[in-house]
Design goal:
Elements lengths: L2 H4 L6 H11 L7 H12 L5 H6 L8 H13 L5 H16 L5 H11 L6 H43 L5 H29 L1 E2 L4 E2 L1 H15 L4 H16 L3 H22 L17 H14 L4 H15 L5 H13 L7 H14 L1 H25 L1 H9 L1 H31 L2 H4 L4 H27 L4 H17 L1 H5 L2
Antiparallel strand pairs: 1-2
Subcellular location: Cell membrane
Keywords: Cell membrane, Membrane, Transmembrane, Transmembrane helix
Family: Belongs to the chromate ion transporter (CHR) (TC 2.A.51) family.
Length: about 475
């Protein structure tokens, strides 16, 4: 793919500025210097409107578009949604400059209020820029397909061996802290620009506060949608210097939470149960995926508790241990984390009618899970573009984008904690010697996390993640197998 294919001649003044920067930036440079160079080269002519309308997306034929997203992102989507979003931003926005950082941040903020995995939605967005709505569908399929195939294979292998297989378990134990390191670095990369004020290009303390308070709200089990919407509105007031309404809203969120906790207790995910999948029939699995996909605002992390309540607690056809395993596998595979639904559908179909129905269940629940994502992103592309450019809502989306960093950070640290110290199931293992051996693995896991994080910051090539995963799987056989098989 040549430079002329990827970067056609731009026509707007803002686009010419960025194109001039592109041609003068062949020498090695870092992201911060690049942003500074844009500011210096554009001066006052490079307005925020230029940044939000600039598009330099190549017009690719559908087969090349599919391969572009399949190869560059689908095969390398390791480390969960945070790492995937950071990878897409680095490749398409920072390196190839399809759009500006300001436009990317606004698009990313808009997708926070849509159901579905943001990484897949971003691929569809860029596909739409390149080849229209059909291009969006093709780009989305290219991103999702590798993970779906791998999860389908993992689901089948799980029914044959399960994670109780000592060899598989040893490799998986080593991979968990490595995946956590990927997510940790990606959180840093995404936060890099989410707390930057576009007009000044400096860190906005109010966006930092929004991220911190959203993290606190997540720890208090305050609904994520309430936090994101609330801080979007609060930042709208702050941007217009309406300090009193902003302060009132900020205080009211905790007053309202305190009143709810006194009369109803701490919010629980069990209240999400609708009873739509009491048995894992194909129609029930499709509806479960459809509803979970419609509720997955902010990605899989909001769909996980809903599926758990329906399948594990309400339906009772999926054991809690198996559900935890499927989330762990979803975190390791190069795929959107919502691909865990494929595993749930496979196990549900297998329980309901054997192997043939298992594959059918995996397909239908996956279709249901991704249907809202494709519907809103592809059918509503023009409307979403208008939202991105809407000046009145711009500060709302900036506040929302800052707040979501708090949610991502909390989830990242939760996964880091479980990947290093192990799960509750590890400490309940019998005999007691096995539980002690598993607890002793925490030190080794912490060292693996530290080494992996150092490697990821030192080597930024996309192959580094593949090498780390392969090396971790092999290292697990030496680091954890003896302890697991010795008892």
């Amino acid at each position: 793919m040549t430079d002329s294919t990827l970067h056609p001649t731009a026509t707007t003044p803002g686009a010419r500025d960025v194109e001039a920067l592109r041609q003068s930036s062949d020498a090695p440079h870092d992201e911060g210097k690049e942003i500074s160079a844009v500011d210096q080269s554009t001066g006052s002519s490079h307005t925020q409107d230029d940044e939000l309308t600039y598009s330099n997306a190549p017009k690719l034929p559908l087969h090349r578009l599919f391969w572009y997203f399949f190869y560059n992102f689908g095969l390398f989507a390791w480390g969960g949604p945070v790492a995937q979003i950071a990878m897409i931003k680095q490749q398409i926005v920072i390196k190839e400059k399809w759009i500006t950082l300001a436009r990317f941040q606004r698009v990313f903020a808009v997708y926070q209020i849509l159901p579905g995995p943001e990484a897949a939605e971003l691929c569809m967005f860029f596909g739409c820029l390149s080849a229209g709505r059909i291009g969006g569908i093709v780009a989305g399929l290219g991103f999702i397909l590798p993970g779906f195939i791998l999860m389908l294979a993992a689901s089948y292998l799980y029914t044959l061996a399960g994670l109780e297989n000592k060899y598989f378990n040893a490799s998986f134990r080593a991979l968990q802290p490595i995946v956590s390191a990927m997510m940790f670095k990606a959180t840093h990369k995404i936060a890099d620009h989410s707390v930057i004020k576009h007009s000044t290009k400096k860190v906005d303390p109010f966006l930092v506060i929004a991220a911190i308070c959203t993290a606190i709200n997540s720890a208090l089990r305050l609904n994520i949608f309430i936090s994101l919407g609330l801080y979007g509105v609060i930042y709208m007031f702050i941007a217009r210097r309406l300090w009193i309404p902003a302060a009132i809203l900020f205080i009211l969120q905790y007053v309202g939470y305190a009143i709810y906790a006194v009369f109803r207790g701490v919010p629980s995910p069990v209240s999400l149960a609708l009873g739509i999948a009491e048995t894992p029939s194909l129609i029930n699995l499709f509806v479960l995926g459809l509803v979970a996909g419609s509720l997955s605002f902010g990605g899989a992390y909001t769909a996980i508790p809903f599926v758990q309540v329906e399948a594990v607690l309400k339906g009772g056809w999926l054991p809690q241990r198996v559900f935890i395993d499927c989330i762990a596998i979803g975190n390791v595979l190069p795929a959107p984390l919502v691909i865990f639904a494929t595993f749930v559908g496979f196990q549900g179909g297998y329980t309901d009618g054997g192997l043939g129905k298992a594959f059918a269940g995996a397909v239908v629940i996956t279709l249901g899970m991704f249907f809202p994502c494709f519907l809103f992103t592809i059918a509503g592309h023009s409307l979403l573009e208008k939202l991105v450019h809407n000046k009145f809502l711009s500060s709302f989306f900036d506040g929302l984008c800052g707040a979501v960093i708090g949610v991502i950070a909390v989830i990242t640290f939760q996964i880091l904690k479980s990947s290093v110290q192990g799960t509750e199931r590890d400490f309940q293992a019998k005999p007691v010697e096995v539980a002690i051996a598993k607890a002793a693995q925490s030190g080794i896991a912490a060292v693996l996390f530290t080494i992996a994080l150092a490697i990821l910051y030192k080597f930024t090539n996309k192959w580094a993640t593949i090498v780390l995963v392969a090396a971790g799987a092999v290292a697990g056989q030496f680091l954890f197998l003896d302890e697991l098989s010795g008892h």
